[in-house]
Amino acid sequence: MLLKECQRLSRVDYALSSGGAMVVRHLEPFIIGMVRRWFRKISLTTVYRDSENMLKPSFGEPDQCFPLKGDSGFVQIRLRTTIIPEAITLEHVDKAVAYDRSSAPKNCRIFLLAEFSYDLQKNNAQTFNVLDSVGSGLVDTVRLDFTSNHGNPSHTSIYRLQVHGHEPTSISMLANSPNSFLRRN
């Protein structure tokens, strides 16, 4: 199944956790029970350990995701290396195996890179091109903001976020990057 996915996209995923990418910030996760009270007591800079689920292949299985509380929020990801971004792929559970997909993010934005709407009527993995205005800007961190989901008031589930692009060919490009500030934000 992983080979099938790679062949379908034909693009490197720089947000893959096994390649070194990691979630560095996010809003409150959707947690049920005692663990929820524990998470509220810790620092806002703490990253919930299950957040890594969104940086791994989910194979379209239900519950192999990172759920965030509410219908809006954000997740910030440090990529495995600095890249020139080309596209973003957002994935939710496949409709063939889920009876309720209302927790899918709907209106989304990747800071400085792309704005898009995830459509439940289309393929469960949807790829969106980076805005032309970015040009050859370099990024090492991306932030997915979602302002709505498809109707679930309690949580929004991110099954997988992929960032595609290519590595710069010159060290001087890294030093002159207009987007190099993204890691500090």
General shape? globular
> How much helical structure, as a percent, in the residues?
10-25%
Query: How confident is the prediction overall: mean pLDDT?
Result: 82
- What's the N-to-C terminus distance? 36 Å
Tell me the major beta sheet. 7 strands, antiparallel
Low-confidence stretches: 1-7, 34-43, 181-185
Which structural category fits the helices and strands? Answer: mainly beta
Number of strands: 9
State which percent range the strand residues make up: 25-35%
Tally the helices: what do you get?
Answer: 3
- H/E order of the elements? HEHEEEEEEEEH
Could you tell me the radius of gyration in angstroms? 16 Å
Summarize the structure in words.
- The structure is a single chain.
- By secondary structure, this protein is mainly β.
- Helix content is 11%, strand content 32%.
- It contains three helices and nine strands.
Question: In a nutshell, what does this entry contain?
Answer:
This protein is mainly beta. It is 11% helix and 32% strand. Strands 1, 3, 4, 5, 6, 7 and 9 form a 7-stranded antiparallel sheet that branches. The chain has a two-stranded antiparallel sheet with strand order 2-8.
List the SSEs and their pairings.
Layout: H1 2-9, E1 22-26, H2 34-41, E2 66-69, E3 73-91, E4 107-110, E5 114-117, E6 125-129, E7 139-146, E8 155-158, E9 160-166, H3 171-175
Antiparallel strand pairs: 1-3, 2-8, 3-6, 3-7, 3-9, 4-5, 4-7
Give structural attributes.
185 residues; mainly beta; globular
